[in-house]
Structures are given as C-alpha cells and as structure tokens.
Amino acid sequence: MEGGVVLLDFWASMFGMRVRIALAEKEIKYEYSEQDLRNKSDLLLQMNPVHKKIPVLIHNGKPICESLVQVQYIDEVWNDQAPLLPADPYKRATARFWADFVDKKMYDSGSRIWKTKGEEQEAAKKEFIENLKLLEGELGDNLYFGGEGFGYVDVALVPFYCWFYAYEQCGNFSIEAECPKLIAWAKRCMQKESVAKSLADPEKVYEFLLQLKKAYGIE
Amino acid sequence: MAEEVKLFKTWSSRFSLRVVWAFKIKGIDYESIDEDLSNKSDLLLHYNPVYKKVPVLVHNGNPISESTVILEYIDDTWKQNPLLPEDPVERARQRFWAKFNEENLLPTIWAIFTTEGKDLEEAMAAWVENLKFVEEELKGKKLFGGEKLGVADLVFGWLANLIGIFEEVSGLKIVDERYPLLLTWMQVFSELPVIKETWPPHDKMITKYQALYEKYHPAK
Questions:
Q1: For a surface tag, which of A53, B13, B41, B177 has the fewest beta carbons within 10 Å of its beta carbon?
Q2: Where would I find the GST N-terminal domain in this sequence (chain A) (predicted)?
Q3: CA-based angle A120:A121:A126, to the nearest 5?
C-alpha cells in the first residue's frame, strides 16, 4: 500500500463526504472502503483506536483521523492543484473559523431535529435555521465562501445539503423557505462533479434515517 | 508601519493563555485588553459577534476568534519559531490531538468538576479512557509537539496548571501515578522559560474555582 491512499468511510456520512470531495478536487486516485459501523472492522479499530469512527484516511500506511484534519492534510500534501485553503493568512483564519463553526453547530442541531419531538424539536429547528442564517450572512453575495473559488468552508458544509431533505421530512419544515441563498449556493456546488459524485442521494439518506430512528426507538 | 496587535483576554482564561504563550514564543509585542465577562465591552461584541468570547486577536483591524484558529493564524503570519512543523503528517497529528483536547478532555474535566454521584463516576470513567490515549501518545516524546513545543502543547497546556487547582478545590485525584508520562510533561511544560511565570495568580484561581465548586456542590 506504499504511496497508496485508502479511505475508510460510510456512504451516508457527511464527514466522509468532505474527504471524498477534497480527494476528487485534487484528482487523487484512492481505494474507497465502505465500513459496517455496527460491526467495526479490525482495520478501522486499528487505524482509529481513539474514536473508532470513520472517515479514516490512510496514506502510505499512516492513518489520519478527523475530517477537517484530513481535508487540510490533503490540501497540504497535494498542493499543486485546486487549493482549498486560501493563501492569505487572514482569509485562511476566516475559513478555519467558519469550518469550525460548521463542526460545532451543524451536526448537533441537525441530529436533534430527528432525535426529538414537540418543543425540543421546535427548539432544534430554530437553532438549526439560526446557524444556517449566520452561514448565509458569511456567504454574502459570493458564489462560494471566502469570495474566491470553491474551498475549505464549502467542502466542510455542502455534505449537509444531502441530509436537508431528511431533516425537513422529520421536522416538517422547509429549509429553502428560510435560507434561499444557502440553498442556491448548495445547488451551485452540486454543479461541480467532485461534489455531485461525493454526496449521497437525499432519498436514500432519508430511508437510512428512518431505519436509524427505528434502531434508536424514536417514533 | 506600526502594527496593531491587540489581544482581548481575561486574567484566568486558559484559552487566552494559549495566545499569550504563542506571542512569547515568537517574541511578538501586543496590547492586552482584559475583559470582564459579566460586562463585555462593545468592542469584544463587535469583534466576536458569533461567540462573544475571549480570546480575540485583532491584527491591523482584522479580528480573529477561537484560540486554535488564532494559533494557526499567528503561525501563518509570524514565521519565526514555528508552532507547527513542515511535515503534513506531523501537522495532522497535532491538529488531531488539539481537537481531542477540545472535544473530549475539556468537556470531561468540566463534568468531573461540576457533578457528583453516578454522573461523577461516569465522568471519571470517561476521563480515565481519555488519559489512556493521551499517555500512549506521549510515548517516545518529550513534548506533544515531539522534540519542540508545538500547537498541541499549547492546547494541552491548561492541564499543567488547572489539574492541581481542581484537585486542591475538589479533593479528587484527577491525574494520578497511572500516568507518569503525562505527569512528567506537566512538570516539563511548566518549567519552560516561555511558560514559567505566565500562570494566573494561584490564590486568585483557588478563590475563583472554590466559589464555582461550591456553586455546583451546595452544602447539604
């Protein structure tokens, strides 16, 4: 596996999708290895003993864990094309800040939409939309976050787009009605091959979510 | 051209201290603005509208928030005494452990400090799991950064001061002899010239955390 790139991943993971997009942007050939998260492989447990989670990027036999760490790694190693982080230090810091914001806020509030009901769910929806509106504000009139080309924050956030349909069904609301600019941005990203082929089908994600809910005992 | 380097911080913030250390390591002059978090300044709210927290670095009018983002900005901007090495694998390693500290260690230590009974037992069990990995990571290394002080050391730095304070206030043993490498690191880190004498006043910290501890553990 010298020189080889392997990605341990799960088809519906928005974190795995970030890495898939980055690898596609840089046109890196790699082996995609679908993992069974209910029956974790020895390889996964060996490569990510701390968190035992996907995605895991294995390069030259060495594992890199945590999706944003992986995306930065990919950007630094394959630095000859499709830069994801800008060159200017302040723009880089801004990109890191907003990618970190996505990490801190989106998964949590999104998960609470499908895990809860009633008042708790309403609160989760409100928080989720508030976070998206902050991101919309940051996007402004730019085509992509940061005002340059497709980059780090776009990669960090766009995978959540394929989960929006599932969230909307569970929460009985329309994300596009609340955040039209953000949805326009997401559709723009989907025009890119690297994004289109990395994101999962929203209907399949919703089916998967329904199975998850059953497994969690949530109505 | 006079450079504007302003740091919004508090006297006790472990996150602000990371930035203070980075400035010391690189020999950067800065203006320190101490905030009262119960009465945040308009400037702080203007520069960090998303989280309204310290630390915030303002460099030539540009605000940067979130301590780990600030550390990387400082490293990108002032190239002397780098906080991260050139090797992407090493950079990824330190970033991974910085995240581990933020998402695993910090919430768990807070749970240990603020809970009791079964919740405390669970927090302690999680803490022990976490420390096992940290101890393993230190094998064969002088510092989390390897041979040199790195971002990971600055992010873990709070341990070298706050564990002692939490243990004194709570009466709990939080980092014991099962973690010799970590205990050694805590000592080595504290003795480094750039770190020595930067800790907030001990008495003030004890008073602060004693009051906080009593708030979460009211006398029955």
A1: B177
A2: 3-82
A3: 100
